[in-house]
Each structure stands twice: as C-alpha cells, then as structure tokens.
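Narrative of accomplishments. A recurring question from our advisory board has been how the design workflow behaves on a single, concrete structure rather than in aggregate. To address it, we present the structure tokens for one chain from the evaluation set, followed by the sequence designed for it. No filtering or post-editing was applied between the two.
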C-alpha cells in the first residue's frame, strides 16, 4: 500500500516539472522502457485512484515503534491538490 501513496506523489511532481510523462503502473523489462508519454489528465486519473486506494487501506495510525510510516492522513491531504 505504501506504493499507492508514494507513487502518486512522484507522478504529481513529475507532471509539475515535465508535463506529459510515461505512466508506468507495472515493472517493465528494459526493452519496454521507451513507451510514449501519457497526457497529464490520464496521469491525474491514476494519481487519484492510487491515493484513494492508499487512503482506504493504510492504517489510521501505527504504534510508537513505527513512527514515520505512511498512514491514512497523508493520502487524504494530497487528494485535493
């Protein structure tokens, strides 16, 4: 689930800097790394889906031993952006 939280933030920042970027949702082999760029709207749709999934499945909080791990709060914070 942490991937569903970190990946949308990375794609959001990439679209802010570069605009259209290739949207990778699976691990690709080296010969498939040259795929065309996807539009910003398609990337934002994936970002929203991933953040919604992360906000649903990440725990509300962890114990004291796991301070700093992703919880439901940050994905909800990123959704309005």
């Amino acid at each position: 689930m942490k991937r569903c939280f970190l990946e949308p933030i990375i794609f959001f920042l990439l679209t802010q800097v570069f605009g259209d970027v290739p949207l990778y949702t699976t691990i690709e082999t080296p010969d498939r790394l040259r795929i065309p760029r996807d539009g910003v709207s398609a990337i934002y749709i994936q970002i929203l889906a991933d953040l919604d999934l992360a906000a649903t499945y990440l725990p509300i909080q962890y114990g004291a031993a796991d301070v700093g791990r992703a919880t439901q709060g940050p994905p909800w914070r990123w959704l309005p952006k």
